[in-house]
Structures are given as C-alpha cells and as structure tokens.
Amino acid sequence: MDNFFGKDFSGPPFQLFSLQHLAAIAVLLLLILYFFWLRKHPNERTQKVVRWSMAIILLINESGWHLWNYVNGTWNIQTMLPLHLCSVFVFLSAIMLMTRSYAIFEFAFFLGIAGASQAFLTPDLGIYSFPHFRYFQVFVSHGLIIASALYMLIVEHQRPTWKSLLKVVIVGNLYFVALFFINRAIGSNYMFTSHKPETASLLDVLGPWPWYLLVEEAMAAVLFTLFYLPFAISDGIKRKKTAAS
What are phi and psi of 145, to 5 degrees? Predict the structure, then answer.
C-alpha cells in the first residue's frame, strides 16, 4: 500500500512516451472513439450513465489527490488550492457533465482541452510511474477533462462559436490577472504568473519573466484559433451552399 499511496516510490521513474504513457494515451483515444459510436447509436440512459460516471470519477480522483497530499504532509494553500487551470476544470467539467451546461462547455472546449492536453502529453510525474497513485491521478484527471469537453461536442452536439472564443479570451485574461494578485498575496505561483516552475517545462524556452507570459498569450491565441478553424470552415461551406441554392 505504501508503494501505491506513499510519498516514496521504489519503482522506476516515469518516462515520457514510454509504454505506460502510450497506454494512457490509447485508453483516452478509445474513450473518444466510443463517443463517436454513442453519437451514431444515441441512448439517453447510456448517455446519462457515461456523463455521471465521468463526473463522479473526476471528483473522487481530485479528492484522492488532496487526501494524498494531506496524508504525506504536502498540502498547503500555496500549491493545493484549486486555482491552476486544470484544477478549476476538474470541477467545472464535472458540473458541465451533470448539467449539460453549454456555458461551461464554451470554456472547457478551449481552455480545458488546451491545458489538460499539455499536462497529459508532458506530465510532471517525476519519480512516480505505474502503478503508483500519482500515475493514475494525473492521467485520469487530465484525460477526463479532455474527454468531457469532447463528449459534449461529439455526443451532445454542442459546439463553440466566435462569441465563445471572445468570452474565453476576455474571462481567461481576467482570471490570469486575478491570479497574479492572489499569488502575490499568499506567496503562491498558480499558473506560473510569478515565475517559471522549478522543474523543466515548456516555459523554459519561452524567455524570462514576464516575457514568457506574453508568449503564452500569443500561443494561446494561435491554439484557440486552430481549435475553432474546423467550425469556421464548416460554417463557410454551409453559407456558400445556401447562397448558391
């Protein structure tokens, strides 16, 4: 049990794109493929079971993460408040799934998928690999954030608009500014507004503080535009067909 839930781990450290990493990616892809099957074979009862199962797993998994830190003496307000982007979307995604909230979907599609994808593909697991609790906790939380938004898109037929993109940019930046002052007040570094993370990360190649924050803004703008591009192209094709008919 200590080797599963303890702070120390005797197994080999996690390696990026190792077999266990690829296995987690494969499970997520299979779940997404199942969503396409469910879209073609809609069933209200099954959809409800899928939505609520993902929501409950998200909340239980996040509770386990807080319990793990508390048991191991690492819980503190500087690192464990649900203020990081993915921590926020654990709760928002659960609410979205339970209520089918389109208002939350607009943000989950852009911010949720963008943040969770980076953490899923380049997880900061350190010494913890399969079958440690941290391995499951990281991939379950970030994987289900991605899956939740895609479920709403694929199965529930929700889709973003240009107004959604505008909302995400405005609210996202307001949240970023608010976090800057929260971090200064309590000595934290949520979303790394105060400095880069101590461990190696993508931010290392984006320049010093505060310039990497501006580079992040530019990267987010490009990424969100790419996320919306298929919908913009589809809308353009529909308008041409309507005009031609």
Answer: -65, -45
